[in-house]
Design goal:
single chain, alpha/beta, Peroxisomal Thiolase, Chain A, domain 1, two-stranded antiparallel ribbon, 12 helices, membrane
Amino acid sequence: MWLQINQLICGCDGGITMPVYLDAIPDVAPKIERPDTRRWLYLLAVALVTGNVLTFWQWTGNREGFTFWFTALGLPFCIWGLVFSFRRFGYKCDQVWAASWDRERMLLIEEETARGQRSARILASGVNTQPGNGSAKLLSAVKSAASQLSMQVPRAGGLPVRHSRLPGFKDMQQRQDLDAVLKSIASQVSPVLESIPAGVPSRLMVDCDIAGIPDAPEQISRVLSSLTDRRLRLLNIGGLAALDLWLDEAWSQPTVLIILSAVVRAEPLEDEGEAIAWLLLLNRHHAAFPDAVKLHRPEKGHADTLSQTLNRALLWCRKPPEDMKAAWTTGKDVAQGGEWISACEANGITFSMTEDNHDVDQTTGYTGQAAPWLGIALAAAAAQHSGPQVVVAQTSPDDIWIVGITADNKTGKNRDLS
């Protein structure tokens, strides 16, 4: 059993190949019942009586002497003692097995919990939305519940639709406008990268849906690598699952991860929006960025298991529920369903659901792939001054992710950049 579990968790090279899932760990071993002495004494009496009856019945010689009485009494007792010894030996073996099972189980829980509590530092972040660039402006708008949604003609034409839209990205100019955005991002990323040794591996995660640019990930990787003078290895998966995987695959050495997510729609639906969000992460503490906040491992769940998902996300943060100061939510089910409020109540969250529970979609509209990173960028900006934050993002009809952002307390193992 343990071999099968370890094979699920560890790959051939010792690397982690699956998300942290504590529920996959088996339960404690069943209680080993001690043999009932009274029953065994009853069995001894039955054995002696049976032995006597059979011996007196079948014995044809003189019913006296050692042989006769050993057959009548000693042999049944010896057989009973042998069976009882085997049962006692099995009981002790079961005890050793159960103790070993529980010990290995606890070690696995400790290892998996420690793996789940891995985190990365957010060294820099930014957002581009309809009003302009920068997290501060959008943070103020979301806190005041000011909406950026308005009736506008979609890029593909047709009837006006209530949505938010990024400036630029007109037909036949998408690539040039994307290059301009990337130059702006590179100008903010490059100074941070200069403080990190060139030998530190750099990864790039691109999660985009840009109308008119089907090869956006390749273009973004090429342009950013050129502008930052860094060899950026493009990850082949996107979304919060990429962050989850990167925290394991790159944990053995300092590694940079640049996340860029952009959504530009040709035909938006009602109450949708466009946005660009980016983050620069480092999986070590950096002395040059003492105020960098920690982005913890995201936890995936569903609407009907949101309470358990929040509980697990709080465990990854190593924070009690009452320490969380605000939430940033995105997604229809999170905003309209009561599961999120119920999950907060079940876990003892104490911040105000009316003042500190911010629905990002009310301001920007639902921004698709960019929505989780938009929420994380806003939460990171708020966490620097307001304390621990939590982001709740619905990325598909079935999947809801919860991730915590906290101040860097510089605790943990192998956490310094060296």
